[in-house]
Amino acid sequence: MSDERRPANPWPPVETQRPEIHPKAPGPGTDLEMHYTECFGCGDVDNGLHIHSTVGESGVVHSRFPVTRAHQGAPGLAHGGLLACAFDEALGSTVGNLLRRPAVTGKLETDFLRPVPVGTTLFIAARVDGVAGRKIYASADGHLNSADGPVAVRARGLFIQVGLEHFTTHGDADALAKFTQAPRLRHDDWDINP
Ligand SMILES: CCCCCCCC(=O)SCCNC(=O)CCNC(=O)[C@H](O)C(C)(C)COP(=O)(O)OP(=O)(O)OC[C@H]1O[C@@H](n2cnc3c(N)ncnc32)[C@H](O)[C@@H]1OP(=O)(O)O
């Protein structure tokens, strides 16, 4: 089904405030480091997605996902779940880097408009659309092979701001300690009170 014929639900679905880019957010042109080396989306992981992101103008973050044979669902085509994963990464990175508020994905929806063949690179442009308390709404378009190529996938995500105890309680506290020691992630540069 073409994009125009898909039902369009209002987005954001609730009244929101305009997102405020954090004063210490990386500026346009900044290549974002992997947020965690073991992240399947952006980390140095065998057969991971190896997504690289750069901050663009006007609150847009540009991410690139090189689709390889390791990412197939149907022969020669990207797996839909891994495409959704790429958008989770791109949207989460956009929220984290621009707002500097620790947040986790609460809801993620994807529209698959065109097949994404192995060997293509998906150029994902993501932005934060609005904020309502702890709820952060973000969306992204994924273009085939160039920033202005045809849109193959669209995604919308709701991210919920959490305290750092979310990660120490449910995750690996030692890994989190290393993660937060990275200069780019210094606690005092983040808004950590949800
Ligand atoms: C730089 C970093 C990049 C990282 C990119 C990758 C990001 C990820 O993949 S994160 C991993 C996947 N996500 C998770 O593991 C999250 C698991 N879920 C949870 O831990 C909890 O459900 C959590 C924290 C999201 C929300 O729980 P909790 O803190 O109790 O908040 P809760 O009161 O339920 O929800 C807060 C608000 O969000 C709303 N909300 C929560 N989930 C949803 C949902 N799925 N749909 C709609 N609204 C929702 C609630 O209705 C509530 O709204 P309101 O304030 O208006 O009443």
List how many beta strands DSSP finds: 7
Percent helix among the residues?
A: 10-25%
Distance between the termini: 40 Å
- Please name the CATH topology: Thiol Ester Dehydrase, Chain A
CATH class: Alpha Beta
Number of domains: 1
Principal-axes geometry comes out as: globular
Tally of individual helices:
3
Q: Which structural class matches the secondary elements? A: alpha+beta
Largest sheet: 7 strands, antiparallel
* Proportion of beta-strand residues: 25-35%
Provide the low-confidence segments as ranges: none
Ligand names: octanoyl-coenzyme A
Q: How much is the radius of gyration in Å?
A: 16 Å
Molecular structure report:
The protein has one domain (26-185): Hotdog Thioesterase (Thiol Ester Dehydrase, Chain A), CATH 3.10.129. The protein is built from three helices and seven strands, in the order E-E-E-H-E-E-E-E-H-H. The protein has helices at residues 80-99, 165-170, 173-181; strands at 31-32, 52-55, 60-66, 103-112, 121-132, 135-144, 151-161. Strands 1-2-3-5-6-7-4 form a seven-stranded antiparallel sheet, with helices on one face. The chain is globular and about 45 Å long. The relative contact order is 0.18. The model has no long low-confidence stretch (mean pLDDT 92). It binds octanoyl-coenzyme A. It catalyses: hexadecanoyl-CoA + H2O = hexadecanoate + CoA + H(+); decanoyl-CoA + H2O = decanoate + CoA + H(+); octanoyl-CoA + H2O = octanoate + CoA + H(+); dodecanoyl-CoA + H2O = dodecanoate + CoA + H(+). Residues 1-30 are annotated as: Disordered.
